[in-house]
Amino acid sequence: GQQVMQIPQYQHVQEGEDFTTYCNSSTTLSNIQWYKQRPGGHPVFLIQLVKSGEVKKQKRLTFQFGEAKKNSSLHITATQTTDVGTYFCAGISGTASKLTFGTGTRLQVTL
Amino acid sequence: DAGVIQSPRHEVTEMGQEVTLRCKPISGHDYLFWYRQTMMRGLELLIYFNNNVPIDDSGMPEDRFSAKMPNASFSTLKIQPSEPRDSAVYFCASSLSSGPYNEQFFGPGTRLTVL
């Protein structure tokens, strides 16, 4: 079945440093969504990418969908303590009709 | 807008007992999803409904798990009998009628502990 892996599993940064998480699918994706889950909270939708090579920005966050539509990345510039949480990618492969969530990257930011 | 509502928020039960988790999706959303989250297995889709009809239950672990959606505003996930390995956070999510390509709105989750 479809598998979606994320690296790293965990990253600890100092506030102000940049952060990137990478998402890799075993199959070609129709779309990729990104969610953020704060500690003790629930996943909250951030963005969706659909087109090959697509890049979208939300303030300090930059999302990219790979040309082959099998990978994606989330880059945070100048992290803040409010960025703490686990970031999940989730995608739908061509034949499936449900989201498969990635393994997640837990981000810790300290002053 | 109240968002997705789940109850109870926490449930502690003993092995062998029946557990029922409840979910009220956002009004107007036609898709409802049940997920389970654990440290070991991450976020897993158990089952999802479209217009109250179960579409894909391939993620349901075994026959001890069952889910129903009797109407557009209510769904249940039942575990009978419960086992310690069922301990997890169970999330319900809903999305608009254009399907799983739409963003999913998650409820606060039910933290289940089976002793």
Which SSEs are present, and which pair or pack?
The complex is a heterodimer of chains A (111) and B (115).
Chain A (H helix, E strand, L loop, with lengths): L3 E4 L2 E5 L4 E7 L3 E9 L5 E7 L5 E4 L2 E5 L5 E6 L8 E9 L6 E2 L3 E6 L1
Parallel strand pairs in A: 2-11
Antiparallel strand pairs in A: 1-3, 3-8, 4-5, 4-9, 6-7, 7-8, 9-10, 9-11
Chain B lengths: L4 E3 L2 E4 L5 E6 L6 E8 L3 E9 L2 E4 L8 E7 L2 E6 L8 E8 L9 E2 L3 E5 L1
Parallel strand pairs in B: 2-11
Antiparallel strand pairs in B: 1-3, 3-8, 4-5, 4-9, 5-6, 7-8, 9-10, 9-11
Care to describe what's here?
- The complex is a heterodimer of chains A (111) and B (115).
- With 111 residues, chain A is an all-beta fold.
- Chain A has no helices and eleven strands.
- In chain A, strand 9 and strand 10 (100-101) form a beta hairpin.
- The radius of gyration of chain A is 13 Å and the shape is globular.
- Chain B has strands at residues 5-7, 10-13, 19-24, 31-38, 42-50, 53-56, 65-71, 74-79, 88-95, 105-106, 110-114.
- In chain B, strands 2, 4, 5, 6, 9, 10 and 11 form a seven-stranded mixed sheet that branches. In chain B, strands 1-3-8-7 form a four-stranded antiparallel sheet, with no helix packed on it.
- By secondary structure, chain B is mainly beta.
- Chain B is built from no helices and eleven strands.
- The interface between A and B is medium-sized, with 19 and 21 residues.
Briefly summarize what is shown.
The complex is a heterodimer of chains A (111) and B (115). Chain A is mostly beta strands and 111 residues long. Chain A is built from no helices and eleven strands.
Helical content of chain B (DSSP H or I, runs of 4+): under 10%
**Subunit arrangement of the protein:** heterodimer
DSSP E strands of chain B, number: 11
- Describe the largest sheet of chain B: 7 strands, mixed
Strand content of chain B: over 45%
Q: What structural class results from the helix and strand content of chain B?
A: mainly beta
Largest inter-chain interface? Answer: A-B, 19 and 21 residues
Low-confidence runs of chain B (pLDDT<50, min 5 residues)? none
Rough shape of chain A? globular
User: How many angstroms separate the termini of chain B?
Assistant: 36 Å
Q: Give the SSE string of chain A.
A: EEEEEEEEEEE
Average pLDDT over all residues of chain B = 93
Q: How far from one another are the termini of chain A?
A: 41 Å
Number of helices of chain A: 0
Portion of residues in beta strands of chain A equals over 45%
Structure class of chain A: mainly beta
What is the helix tally of chain B? 0
